[in-house]
Amino acid sequence: MRIALDAMGGDYAPEPNVLGARQALQEHEGIEVVLVGDEEKIAPLLEEDRDHPRLSILHCSQVVGMHERPSAVRSKRDSSIARCWELMATNKVDALVSAGNTGAVAAAGLFTRLFLKGVRRPGIAVVIPTKSGPSILLDVGANAACKPEHLYQYGVMGSLYAQKIVGIEQPTIGLMNIGTEDGKGNELVKETHRLFNQSHFSDAFHGNIEGRDLYQGTANVVVCDGFVGNVVLKVSEGMFEYVMGMAAEGVLPALNQERDLAKQAFKKIADRYHHSSFGGAPLLGIEGTCLICHGSSNDKSIRNALLRTAQHAEVHLNEVIVAALNPPAEA
Amino acid sequence: MRIALDAMGGDYAPEPNVLGARQALQEHEGIEVVLVGDEEKIAPLLEEDRDHPRLSILHCSQVVGMHERPSAVRSKRDSSIARCWELMATNKVDALVSAGNTGAVAAAGLFTRLFLKGVRRPGIAVVIPTKSGPSILLDVGANAACKPEHLYQYGVMGSLYAQKIVGIEQPTIGLMNIGTEDGKGNELVKETHRLFNQSHFSDAFHGNIEGRDLYQGTANVVVCDGFVGNVVLKVSEGMFEYVMGMAAEGVLPALNQERDLAKQAFKKIADRYHHSSFGGAPLLGIEGTCLICHGSSNDKSIRNALLRTAQHAEVHLNEVIVAALNPPAEA
């Protein structure tokens, strides 16, 4: 498994990126990592792994900033994100991992057009924690102008990802809507609803769900337009922080002796949530594997994402997606 | 101020509705309430207010259920929601309050077409609590097929509502988007962004905001498509409950003697949030006043909404909206 790691992507890069790569190499013998980025900054961080046989550096001179427009990746041909995609497009690596500008990583994937057979548009899937265990939400930002066929394919791809990677045996698929009854919502979701009901996946299709069902875990896979998904994901992040802050501010002053115990418990919950929500999010529908990590990733998150790419290959995720989207009856 | 109250709307109707009406009458001498609904169910709840000079019942035989399609209000002509709108359309009342099926209340408003001069589509505004105080989010479900002009008008109406009713002196207007840079997002938000910048409200326009800015209170008024707003509002409701549950489950067992103190503090926060978020939400852009209450409204919420309608009239909210949307330069 050869993996390109965007060494420059993320709020704290390149330190946690390089450290995470070194940890992953130690843990999995089948992994080779190409660190893509500014060699001068990366090299000093390698320490005793300087001559590691499964580690190399591909120097590049540019970086797409975390707050730049995604389209910047088009003009910055020597950016770490563009180079990672180039390595994958030319079969020099099997996977890429980036904690950089999510929009830019996805945009570069769209430009490169490494789409799996039958896939109309790739989509970013995130695993979110819910009352009933993990759910998969997609698309969360790769595609802000979805067509019904795209949403249908997100349901299929998300469902196979849930099964093969997240370990949910028979995932149900819910369509994010503004009411649960059939016939609700705008034209996009109405037509998507019809597509699911007429498809091979009609049994797994739970129908419409509403926003408040998301954290109940009413459906294992929740499908929505990339605009809606991105807003939902970021509102959730902001709201988690807001509610936890409000809870701590309300509870801690009400206590006397046990304030420190409570403070520690709050911190533990925040840490657990942070890591459960923001592992590497795959751009599904791509020839190869692309995992996008949260901008605030630490070395552990990077290491986990690198190891996760190997899992994608082991379970043949792309092959099952292609089989599901190109059923023999339609051949 | 004559107000039609949908006596049948809400999860616990008609008890809290009737009780809330009786409280409002006692508190504000300028209010007259018409209880619209099943007389047999309403009358026994009136008790000593049976012959109250400012209270009357308009009997009707139908109810639009909380989970029925909004369009049901079209065929149920003798439903409490349809009758409330009819009273307003025929100038028998100045305002209506309903805790019933939100979609049906808004749909009936659209059918009735009691739009203020210059208003293209009414929108539902909710006040949400944020780190920096209350913000206004709209539309949250009246209009799931927004055009740029609609979103622009929501910004204007939301801003005047923020000023006149919520008491925010110089409200800023943010456009919900998937990135903060200019030029981000789908066609709808890109064009809306241009409209704001070219308008009389360009100084108040903060530009794009992202989901995570919502609970930071980065903008006082947040404008979005009714599909997005409805999903955001319901995801927030669900997430509040999920995070508070997770916090309580994590913190309470970590304590020994002071578990009860902490439990009370958690409950207090939940109650406060519930009441701060879900007051009566106005359908802005309507000739008259329409306040939509949360389905779980209690008597206090209904009372507050009834009193709030009087405030709408006192500050001449509709007049300032009409003036802002029909500037003399364009006359």
Overall structural class of chain A, as computed from helix and strand content, comes to alpha/beta
How many beta-strand elements of chain A?
A: 11
For this structure, the quaternary state is homodimer
Quick one: CATH superfamily of the largest domain in chain A? Isopropylmalate Dehydrogenase
Proportion of strand residues of chain A = 15-25%
Largest beta sheet: strand ordering of chain A: 3-2-1-4-11-10-5-6-9-7-8
> Mean pLDDT of chain A, nearest integer?
94
Give a short synopsis of this structure.
Chain A has 331 residues and is of the alpha/beta class.
Describe the structure.
- Two copies of one chain form a homodimer.
- Chain A has two domains: 2-119 and 285-321, Isopropylmalate Dehydrogenase (3-Layer(aba) Sandwich), CATH 3.40.718.10; 129-276, Isopropylmalate Dehydrogenase (3-Layer(aba) Sandwich).
- In chain A, helix 6 (148-166) crosses helix 7 (187-197).
- Helices cover 43% and strands 16% of the residues of chain A.
- Chain A is of the alpha/beta class.
- The radius of gyration of chain A is 20 Å and the shape is globular.
- The interface between A and B is large, with 64 and 64 residues.
